[in-house]
Amino acid sequence: MIDVLLLTLTLAVQQAVGPHLPARTEPQIHALNAEIQSQLASGQFTEAREVMARWPGATFTYEVAYERGGELPPSAQGAGEEAASVWSEATNGRVKITEGSKAAVRIEFIDRALPGDPPPGWNESQVVARVPLSFGEPPRPMPRRSVVVAVAKAFGVAMGHAPLSRHGWLMGIDDRIDMVAPIGPTPTELATIGRLLDVRDELEKAVDGRIRLTPGMPKLVIEPSDVNLGIVDEGAKPRATIVLRNDGNAPIEFAVDASCRCLFLQSIAPLGPGEVRVIEPGADTSGFMGKHAKEFLIHSSDPAKPTQSIVLRFESVPEYRVVPDALQRIHLPDDGPGAFEIIVYSFPGKPLNVISATANLPAVTTQVTPFTGEVVDPAFSKEPERRTGYKVRIAFDPSFPSGTAFVNLTITTDSHRRPSHSIVLQTHKGIAAAPSSVYFGGIAGDEKTQRSIRISHPTARFKILEATTEGGPFSISTQADDSDGFGYRVTVTYNGGAKGPLVGRVILRTDHPKYPEIAVPIAGHTR
């Protein structure tokens, strides 16, 4: 009877399901785990031990190198020891990382950051990290903190934690700011490392005890993984219904990243073997117009597909659209009236009346008339589409002043959600200065200082015949500049020697019959 009981217990141990890895596990560790469990299942204990040797675990060594050879630069010296201490202290001494031979991690210090800042990764059985000692253009020294963080991140990868896309996390994206805050993993990262080490320890005990295991292989199925939420009102928060199913024989753990702050999803609890669960990811469409696709990255314990995605597609439509809807530059003729047109349209099922349109400046009148026709609205389509709504015509009287001006236009509707819409029109008539004055601000009284403005006409070429200044110790130079319309770059130099306020004018004589002389004020003060 006792022999039968012992045999039953032995078979139960042999048939135990192997451990599963947490979400955000490195694919290399997933592969080693699967290989070890497969060998344990078939009783290949010697082979399993050989594979275990390729999984660094809590105790391993690293080596360092410098791309130029020779002694490490001061900013790199001791970084490995500091990074090793980070993990040792965080795990209360469980993790022991030292510099030595047969290294599981190779740290290569390089002078300049590589394009895209590639994270540390596996090269056969070794993790390789290329740690830059400068970044940016022109190059700036890498903060010591960032050097240590990069090395610690490589150690984390060796223990099995995949790199993250989150800012401020040890395994995530470093912002290269020289902070005084201590370096260390977040509680979530530390828990992942702990789970990885626990799984390795459990497998090592199985190898040492020659215990057969049924490979623990979670398998995540997401249905559907791409959902079209259709046309929704701007500001709505539509949700999708997604089914998660575990077709494997071990639990699945989850971690989620979102491509946009507009996405929301409650945390996902572990999913047992054969278990099915419905989740409802959603998107807040406030501030979005047109067609969009937003993505969740679902990290899981599934060794075959450790990261899968859920894509939510939607077309967000506001109650009405104003086209164009942003700051507009308008070129007015030198003589005679000018005009500009704006289209206001609503979407099917959203009736709208435009009550009025008013401008804040004199010599500007508006007219609102019904409209049906083709409209190009880049928020929804690059091609013209037939729309129904209103046309707002803004007319500029010939007496409208030359130069540049800003016209605030307010469109009033019968909408309850958005009763009015404002748009700014920037007018340019004739020859104008941008900015409209030469402003020095507060400058040193004994130092030469320069300020530049641009003098231009939107449609007609002209020549500056003479450029002079009035008041103050100023000199002036001009250079042709047709980058936007036709014009000149005018540079005024303060030559030093004045005290107190700076007051003067730039006087430009041109060959334009309507604008023979342009005056631009100069202002500032010396310290």
What are the key terms here?
alpha+beta, five-stranded mixed beta sheet, four-stranded mixed beta sheet, 6 helices, disordered N terminus
Q: Using the CA coordinates, give the radius of gyration.
A: 34 Å
Give the helix/strand class. alpha+beta
Strand content: 35-45%
What's the total count of β strands? 32
Average pLDDT rating: 93
Bulk shape = flat
Stretches where pLDDT falls below 50 for ≥5 residues? Answer: 1-13
Largest sheet: 5 strands, mixed
* Assembly form of the protein: single chain
Distance between the termini: 103 Å
Q: Give the neighbour order of strands across the main sheet.
A: 2-1-3-5-4
Percent helix, as a range, is 10-25%
Q: Please tally the helical runs, counting DSSP H or I stretches of 4 or more residues.
A: 6
Compact overview of the structure:
Helices cover 16% and strands 41% of the residues. The chain is built from six helices and 32 strands.
Description:
The protein is α+β, with helices and mostly antiparallel strands. It is 16% helix and 41% strand. It has helices at residues 2-14, 27-41, 45-52, 79-90, 144-159, 187-208, and strands at 59-66, 96-99, 105-110, 121-123, 126-132, 134-135, 140-141, 220-223, 226-233, 242-246, 254-258, 263-264, 276-279, 282-283, 290-300, 307-317, 320-323, 328-332, 338-346, 354-359, 364-375, 385-396, 403-413, 420-429, 432-434, 438-443, 449-457, 464-470, 474-480, 486-494, 501-510, 517-526. Strands 2-1-3-5-4 form a five-stranded mixed sheet, covered by helices on one side. A four-stranded mixed sheet has the order 9-16-15-11, with no helix packed on it. α2 (27-41) runs antiparallel to α3 (45-52). The longest helix has 22 residues, at 187-208. The N and C termini lie far apart (103 Å).
